[in-house]
Amino acid sequence: MWAYILRRVLLMIPTLIGVILLTFVVIQFVPGGPVEQMVQQLKARDGEGGGGAGFGYNGRKGVDAERIKEIKALYGFDKPVTERFWIMMKGFARFDLGDSFYHHVDVWTLVKSKLPVSVSIGLWTFFLTYLISVPLGIAKAVREGSRFDSLSSAVVLVGYSIPGFVLGVFLLVVFGGGSFLQWFPLRGLTSDDWATLSLFGKIKDYLWHITLPVLASVAGSFAVMTMLTKNTFLDEIRKQYVLTARAKGLSENKVLYKHVFRNALIPLVTGFPAAFIGAFFAGSLLIETLFSLDGLGLLSYESVIRRDYPVVMGTLYLFTLIGLVVKLLGDLCYVWADPRVQFESLAK
Questions:
Q1: pTM, to two decimals
Q2: Closest alpha carbon to 219 in 176, 163, 172, 173
Q3: pLDDT tens for residues 218-256?
Q4: What is the pLDDT of residues 159-175, one digit of tens each?
Q5: How far apart are CA 38 and CA 71, in angstroms?
Q6: Which of 247, 280, 296, 328 has the lowest tally of Cβ within 10 angstroms?
Q7: Which of 131, 137, 126, 127 is nearest to 227 (CA)?
Q8: Which residues have C-beta within 8 Å of that of residue 294, sequence separation ≥ 6?
């Protein structure tokens, strides 16, 4: 086992470097970097036009060459490309993600400040999806072809066909004070007076704010997990060992939960680490924007638009590393859930 884990960890290093290198190279050819944006701002401040001409290099006319050198040095663009990449990788090796060009704080601080929103939406979505979808999928598999199965499938598929942000708009219009009811707030994760509330009041206020965003986020993943659970259980129920267990006189509940349950949950268990960690970092940009939630999804989007390269590269490094570790954990969970699988077979 430890040899397999060591091989996987060693393979993570070139994979991580390759992802970062590819993104770094692409960034070098993207126009409108921080230097061009700063020059454009100087031109606008000095009354030399440049409002709608874009961020091309033509905007440097009228700006002193010495000033441009100072701006390049400020953002570190006075160094060769290879040297900048080497400095960045050395920082990443020490988990130093650099400082944001736009926010003027280190990227770690920025990411931690956005985590509460993404964690709140992600964890609630994750737990609700598993707590409801797995029992519902089992019930649908046991009652396959019944009216309950047909009606629940129709409801689940309708929910899956509606995009999360469209459902979010509908919930805001109906329940968020749009045109009908004003049961839930329009924006934010907490109220302005949250710090002055009692413990019970804080919990109530938090749940009051998080309800609509979570409902909008659950819709898609809920349907996928339900149908996956149903189909997995159906495949197991039709196997020979289930018929043998029934022929021995075992009760249906014992057959289902003692024999079928463990084997059917293997695909769900192996995806558990990825789904759990993904709940932290896979924040929906549209959901966060719609409900005015300042999370990691919105941070990533704004960083790309503003060409905030330290945030782009720092978060890419962090999320890629977490993704590789989670993939390894998924393989370990697969072996834990099914002892028939050996590490030697996974390494092939």
A1: 0.70
A2: 163
A3: 876 777 788 888 888 888 888 888 888 788 877 777 777
A4: 778 777 788 888 888 88
A5: 8
A6: 247
A7: 137
A8: 114, 117, 288
